[in-house]
């Protein structure tokens, strides 16, 4: 109740309303792990920066970004790219900050490490959770199903004919739409192969692709797998334009128009 986020349509509308009404002060970003979409903490911070700047309030606004581990992002190379971007924009950041509670009365965030950060507007990236039905039925701890990282079969004696995809897995990889997309390609090909020749023919290599919006009109991307870390490039308007076009093309293909 003391923070805003953009993870539902209603919350996104409220996020926009409060940011539009903001007159200046400190905007604090807190991040829970794991979270949906690996790049969202960075993207909302960059987007807020440019929005506030366009409103002419940048000199009246302090941005303070916190992250639970010892760098500004869980992926090391993404963190190495993002930290200089923060520095260039004048965005302060504190790492090893795990939110413990929000003291709404005094408008401050308290961390497990004993720190306290004052805020005027608090933006929270909530931790992603597994499904209760999974844990209630003994299928996996904390609502995630134990999954083989390459075959994508559920671990255990009943997993031979069960394929697990997307956010349902307990794999320590990004909870992103592209993750499910690439997993589904492997799963579909293997199901067809088992029917035809009696065995699987592909392994999932951990492939993930994520655009990273670096403000209102610039973007870069991260593509990585189990063996190859991401290598984000300098953001460009061209990548941003491609991302915007992709948003339209995806739904056109889903409707069979492409």
UniProtKB/TrEMBL annotation:
It comes from the Bacteria. PANTHER family: FAD-DEPENDENT PYRIDINE NUCLEOTIDE-DISULPHIDE OXIDOREDUCTASE, PTHR43755. This is NAD(P)/FAD-dependent oxidoreductase. It comes from Acidithiobacillus ferridurans.
């Amino acid at each position: 109740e003391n923070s805003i986020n953009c993870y539902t349509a209603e919350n996104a509308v409220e996020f926009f309303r409060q940011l539009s009404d903001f007159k200046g002060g400190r905007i604090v970003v807190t991040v829970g792990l794991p979270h949906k979409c690996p790049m969202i903490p960075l993207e909302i911070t960059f987007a807020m920066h440019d929005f506030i700047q366009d409103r002419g309030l940048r000199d009246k606004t302090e941005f303070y970004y916190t992250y639970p581990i010892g760098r500004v992002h869980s992926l090391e190379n993404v963190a190495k790219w993002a930290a200089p971007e923060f520095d260039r924009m004048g965005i302060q950041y504190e790492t090893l900050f795990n939110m413990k509670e929000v003291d709404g009365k005094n408008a401050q965030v308290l961390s497990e490490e004993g720190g306290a950060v004052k805020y005027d507007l608090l933006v929270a990236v909530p931790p992603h959770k597994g499904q209760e039905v999974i844990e209630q039925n003994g299928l996996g701890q904390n609502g995630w199903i134990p999954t083989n990282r390459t075959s994508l079969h559920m671990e255990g004696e009943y997993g031979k004919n069960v394929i697990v995809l997307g956010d349902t897995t307990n794999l320590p990889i990004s909870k992103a739409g592209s993750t499910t997309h690439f997993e589904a390609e492997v799963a579909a090909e293997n199901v067809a192969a088992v029917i035809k020749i009696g065995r699987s023919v592909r392994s999932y290599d951990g492939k993930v692709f994520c655009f990273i919006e670096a403000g209102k009109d610039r973007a870069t991307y991260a593509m990585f797998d189990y063996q190859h870390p991401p290598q984000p490039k300098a953001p460009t308007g061209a990548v941003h334009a491609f991302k915007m076009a992709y948003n339209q093309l995806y739904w056109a293909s889903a409707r069979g128009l492409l």
